[in-house]
Amino acid sequence: MTVAPDLSRLSRGDVVLLGIPADDKASYRRGAAAAPGAIREALRCDSSNMTAEDGRDLGSCARLKDAGDLELQGRLDCVAIEAASEALAGRGAHPLFLGGDHAVSFPLIAAQARRWGPMTVLHIDAHPDLYDEFAGDRLSHACPFARLLEAGAVSRLVQVGIRGMNAVQRTQALRFKVEVLDMVAWRAGRRPQIDGEFYLSLDLDALDPSCAPGVSHREPGGLLSSELIGLLQGVGGRLIGADLVEYNPERDWDGLSGMVAAKLVKELAARILRDSE
Hints:
The protein contains 8 helices and 8 strands; from the N terminus they run E-H-E-H-E-H-E-H-E-H-E-H-E-H-E-H. By secondary structure, it is an alpha/beta fold. The chain has an 8-stranded parallel beta sheet, with helices on both faces. Strand 5, helix 5 and strand 6 form a beta-alpha-beta unit. The termini are far apart.
């Protein structure tokens, strides 16, 4: 049985942390289901504090709330995940979801799109996650954006940090008119241009493994943490919600990636709060 989070104390405009601990759709190594708890532990670590780089003290911010985790036992329960995402949207809250593997983004974003309409999504990742199916599974963590695009939940998909896109996913990107800003383009100085409301889906393996080794699919040549933080702070548009996925504490080194994930959570929360004022 999946237990729904208690959303009774949420108000319109709140930014809400909600853990989605599912990793059974991972194609290589499981472990991301433990990420929500590990990220919260890093957020509480005395080596840092809850102040974002814009000076916002998130520790005393009444609009930042934590709804806990869905009780998923590691399984991708799309019905329960969609229901939780839709409930947040129905209360006018801005979600900041903590995955879990990237498969969780399909039900999360699909539900948000029922609130906001077809969405612009900024997807930051080493991988395009556009397979029609992977190892016979259409709900694999390698497939969420194919599902969202074919369902019409995403009207514009902008991908940043991609490296090693193969022929199958290149064909899919052309089919769905995905705007791919790969690492070759990033190093050449290109940056995403976003206008209006958008949702952000952030896979921790967008970062170079030297910055975040605690992921299942380490792909060298990625973004530096300072570059990623600058992108989160500086990209245009109005951020209405986000997910951070694919942190795998079992592969971390001395909590390094957990601290990076916590830092990104703080900057995402600050950005959503700023954009919703």
